[in-house]
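Repro case for the chain-ordering regression, as requested:
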Amino acid sequence: MGFTNWSIERVSQFRSCAIIKRDSDRRFMLKNERAIRICVGASAGGHMNQLLKLLEMSRNWPKPPLFCVTTLEALAEKLAQLGPVYIIGECNRRHLLKTLRVLMRSLKVVIKERPDVVITTGSLPLAMVCLSAKLFGAKIVWIDSIANIERLSLSGRMIRHLADLFLTQWPELAQQYPSVEYAGAIV
Amino acid sequence: MIFLTVGTYPIPFDRLVKAIDTVAMERLVEEKIFAQIGLCEYQPQNIEYVEILEKGDFDSYFRKATSIISHAGIGTITMALDFNKPLLVMPRRKHLKEHVNDHQVATARKFEELGHILVAYETEELPVKIEELKSFVPRKREAQPHAVAERIARFLNELANNGK
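-- result from build under test --
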């Protein structure tokens, strides 16, 4: 795992501004004096339920998430305990203009926070976040929603090509697409 | 109390709300029905409703309910399984412009097969299914959230070790 040669000091519990020092690999140190910045995100509803379930199990991640992106104001209060929450609004494939607006908001969030990794359970609004973050060199972890049983979601099929880790929650689906993995179901 | 929710998806699902309002009007259930109708345009006459609840309030209605009726959204389905609540779903349909595709039919069918939920594919089936719901005991679901989190942990560690 190579995780043993890290030492982590947590400066603030919620902002997770940890300082990571590493004995080897100076290059990494220079490029990344700041800690690995994890963005988590999901649309309201089932996507968010899956993300929250996943986060309950995330104690062994090298860093806790730094901030969260979602689509509805109603969720902000509940998520505030995870750190800053950005609301980018809802969109779907039928409304190009709304989708573009969500993309613009996503870009703003990405430019402000500059995440190293985006971890998301979808859907289209979060695909916009992935797209924006990828432009700025972030790695993408996409977990396709458990609701997609017979084929991957449209957003999933789109993001599959730029994702660095793509997980489905149904083993049958992992066999249908190269580079799609099954590691279990979150819910 | 029966809790009716059509999810937070940004397209209305009037068909279900209307059908349940009719069920209430015809007094097919003795219990009170409370609904979160989201973006529905139809305004129920026979049941209490709100457009949207804060997550905390939503959870407490969910907990208080004896059973749940909803669209076949995965959020509601997994939440019902978590809270061990009998759930009856009606899938949103693409041809009725209730969703962008018919994945809710596939979701409903899969979870019905696994014994986790009851499904009414059409509004006509609702009265019979609501009757079944009264004695329905959902099968528990086994999931592996820890395995998924572990896979992501491995990815994050590799990322950190490779110097991004």
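Ordering looks correct now. The mean pLDDT of chain B is 94.
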